[in-house]
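Suppose you are handed a protein chain with no further information: no name, no annotation, nothing but its sequence. What can you learn? This example shows the usual starting point.
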Amino acid sequence: MAGILAWFWNERFWLPHNVTWADLKNTEEATFPQAEDLYLAFPLAFCIFMVRLIFERFIAKPCAIALNIQANGPQTAQPNAILEKVFTAITKHPDEKRLEGLSKQLDWDVRSIQRWFRQRRNQEKPSTLTRFCESMWRFSFYLYVFSYGVRFLKQTPWLWNTRHCWYNYPYQPLTADLHYYYILELSFYWSLMVSQFTDIKRKDFGIMFLHHLATIFLITFSYVNNMARVGTLVLCLHDSADALLEAAKMANYAKFQKMCDLLFVMFAVVFITTRLGIFPLWVLNTTLFESWEIVGPYPSWWVFNLLLLLLQGLNCFWSYLIVKIACKTVSKGKAGKWNPLHVSKDDRSDIESSSDDEDSEPPGKKPHSSTTTNGTSGTNGYLLTGPCSVDD
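A reasonable first move is to predict its three-dimensional structure. Written in structure tokens, the prediction is:
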């Protein structure tokens, strides 16, 4: 184990040339990031999870009820042992041949069996109240952490001149505010890793899990080798659009359509501006070029920049999807009326639906493959195909 740890914490990988871990030990004059500090994220993640449960029950739920958001779930399918066995053990979406076989076995018409499966699928979907509470919690946290990040960064020299991220690197002292900001963000993503298994399950579950894992790795990596200054810029920049997205969802659940549309447009503008404009021109410029000039490259420098470039690739992909959705929804809007997010039920996002399609076809009418959700999913909740459709 000692050999493995020595290999993992190789100074020539993590630190610039002629710098050792002993040089970054805490002293009376200065405090530096220590790997063991990251253990604080685990109990704090548990506390965040518990705060969320209390928030959703005593704050979000009363707000939802005040907005006339009902907790009533979808219509319940009548009990049927044969159909229930097929649903749980074989398929939730029976094909035409199986429907005909069940029709003969139960002496039901095919429409009634289709209706039963549709109602049974809808039973597994959470109520609008549950969705509202989840979005309100995320909105509140994102708003708080982004506000804290802005308040903290505007007092720092590296916000106004990114070259300060690398002056005297890695001998940059760790302040209490920076430590709190980093550990809070890391704890939140650890809590998301756990709560993802209890939250509304969506089709992008696997991708979101990988996203949270990658985010945790990036935060941890930048903390250990004391790239925390530029890390705070990355965190704050990527938090800027999240609260707007959750606010748009809340407006959707409350059936405030115009507000939902406006919030989504604001989200799209902020997202594309920060991810395709500010992030590459501001953050990537300093991590790739200014750091090369001031510090010079070393192994963990290459890894860190590779991770940021991969993140930028995802930003481009998400932005493309948002623009594509905007063009699609405009073309589907009514002539002469601007309604940027009014799309059909079949075009909704997996973010706002659960793991199954909404199944809105009339009883007995076979769904067309061209109008079903294609199952594409996005990371970090940004693949949207009309999140503010009232039908959600």
